[in-house]
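Q: What would this complex look like in 3D?
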Amino acid sequence: MNEFNSIMAVAAILWTSFILYTGYLDSKVRAIEKRLK
Amino acid sequence: MEFKRKHATVFLGALWLVVLAAMYKVLFSLGPLKEELLRYPGDPMRHGYKIFFFSMEAAAITYIAFAVVLIGSALYLKSKDMKWDRIAASSARLGIVFTTILLINGAIFSNLAWGAYWNWDPRQTSSLFLWFTLAAYLTLRGAVDGSETRARLSAVLGIFGFIGVPLTHISTTIWLSNHPVLYNTAQSSGFSLDQSGLILFMTLMSCFLLLYVYLLWFTVKIDVLEEKSQKVFSGEL
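A: Here is my prediction, written as structure tokens for the whole assembly.
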């Protein structure tokens, strides 16, 4: 694996964590929406 | 089929799986740069040229985020509807994230191609200017009390701040720059991709565009909920 691929692997991990966190936040927002209805 | 709220999360997950698959293809299936384009044996640009697939997306989303700030600000000034202010503010927040990604991508490219992370290349410098514009916009929003005044002042900055976008776009042609260009100019020939590269590029581009739309929708939603919950706490609702 070349140096560039290692950088991109780190980027992919960071991005994936961000997306998973966004999904988690979305579930929280959904719960609040239900309560405010 | 009726759109249910939980479908948004499924959409986000599916979108990300496509991005990861395309990213894997870019890194492991696309070949290295052609021998005749390499400057010396072991040139880091041999594989490093693939950064194009990621920095171009960040650049496009940055431009789009700026355009949405411009449109949102203009429509707010025209209609005084807070909805447009919320959209502009959310777009600026996302814009600063994508501009940061663009600057990091640019620094990695700069190190691979020119041997230093920061070169004060016109493209790099003008992208930094874009970052500072959004930082100023968000700082202004944080500093002003009263939603009407905040919306009006930031809308003016949002409109004038857009000047950075065309400036960044033409920076490589009006100033002396080493940055590769996408089309042929008097100074250099344009960058080209083969068919599989083009398909991967378009896939990544549309996925990131959809991701931006999703995040914009989501952040606006959070803003609305925040206002609503503040009203509930203060007893207005």
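A: To summarize the key features: Chain A has a mean pLDDT of 85. Helices of chain A lie at 3-36.
Q: Very helpful, thank you.
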